[in-house]
């Protein structure tokens, strides 16, 4: 488990918007060590952390992150992208879905968006706040967003103070280009 540069950028976005978070229902998908979800909880959001139900060690890491940050009120549930489960169906409507670097493998893109779409059915105004690391110019969400009747707004990193070199510093080799997106239902579907 590792805090990836995308998680740091998403946590910075949450901190920038901390005044709007108290009382919001926030779900982090693919949470791992859960930095964005922990930040949201520390800012007053009602947070649920999730990772794959097929990876119990990841769910345990989520629980440990809550424990280390004195956040016993944060729920942890197993949600596997693209799978309809009791845990997914039992979730209350969310205001914000957090996703840090979940658009990693192109074969998972549609499963992620299918899961988000199901959550959007409960609250059509929910937004997916997502950061991803640019890995290939050939990978695009555009066709899938269109298919699932969603739209995407690119958020410039400088608009929330995340454009500094040290914000997502990493010991990993190479340059890390991180992008911030807000995904929601397309306007004409509301």
UniProtKB/TrEMBL annotation:
The answer to whether keyword Nucleus applies is yes
Looking at its record, which EC class is this enzyme?
transferase
Catalysed reactions, as listed in the record? L-arginyl-[protein] + 2 S-adenosyl-L-methionine = N(omega),N(omega)-dimethyl-L-arginyl-[protein] + 2 S-adenosyl-L-homocysteine + 2 H(+)
InterPro entries the record matches: Methyltransf_16, SAM-dependent_MTases_sf
Pfam families, alphabetized:
Methyltransf_16
Q: Which GO terms describe its molecular function?
A: protein-arginine omega-N asymmetric methyltransferase activity
Q: Where are the transmembrane segments?
A: none
GO cellular component annotations of the record: cytoplasm; nucleus
Enumerate the UniProt keywords alphabetically: Chromatin regulator, Cytoplasm, Developmental protein, Methyltransferase, Nucleus, S-adenosyl-L-methionine, Transferase
**According to its UniProt record, where is this protein located?**
Cytoplasm; Nucleus
GO BP term (any one): chromatin organization
Q: What does this protein do?
A: Histone methyltransferase that dimethylates histone H3 at 'Arg-17', forming asymmetric dimethylarginine (H3R17me2a), leading to activate transcription via chromatin remodeling. Maternal factor involved in epigenetic chromatin reprogramming of the paternal genome in the zygote: mediates H3R17me2a, promoting histone H3.3 incorporation in the male pronucleus, leading to TET3 recruitment and subsequent DNA demethylation.
Say which family it is in: Belongs to the methyltransferase superfamily. METTL23 family.
Q: What is said about its interaction partners and assembly?
A: Interacts with HSPA5, HSP90B1, TUBULIN, UGGT1 and UGGT2. Interacts with TET3. Interacts with STPG4.
Record protein name field:
Histone-arginine methyltransferase METTL23
Q: Which organism is it from?
A: Vicugna pacos (Alpaca)
The upper taxonomy is: Eukaryota, Metazoa, Chordata, Craniata, Vertebrata
């Amino acid at each position: 488990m590792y805090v990836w540069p995308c998680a740091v950028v998403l946590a910075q976005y949450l901190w920038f918007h901390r005044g709007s978070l108290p009382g919001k229902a926030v779900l982090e998908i693919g949470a791992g060590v859960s930095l964005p979800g922990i930040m949201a909880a520390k800012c007053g959001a009602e947070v649920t952390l999730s990772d794959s139900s097929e990876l119990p060690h990841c769910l345990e890491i989520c629980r440990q992150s809550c424990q280390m940050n004195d956040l016993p009120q944060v729920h942890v549930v197993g949600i596997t992208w693209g799978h309809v489960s009791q845990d997914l169906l039992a979730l209350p409507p969310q205001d914000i879905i957090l996703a840090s670097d979940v658009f990693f493998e192109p074969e998972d893109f549609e499963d992620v968006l299918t899961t988000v779409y199901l959550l959007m059915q409960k609250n059509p105004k929910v937004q997916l706040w997502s950061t991803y690391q640019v890995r290939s110019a050939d990978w695009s969400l555009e066709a899938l967003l269109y298919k699932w009747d969603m739209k995407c707004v690119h958020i410039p990193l400088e608009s929330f103070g995340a454009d500094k070199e040290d914000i997502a510093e990493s010991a990993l080799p190479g340059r890390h280009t991180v992008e911030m997106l807000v995904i929601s239902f397309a306007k004409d579907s509301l």
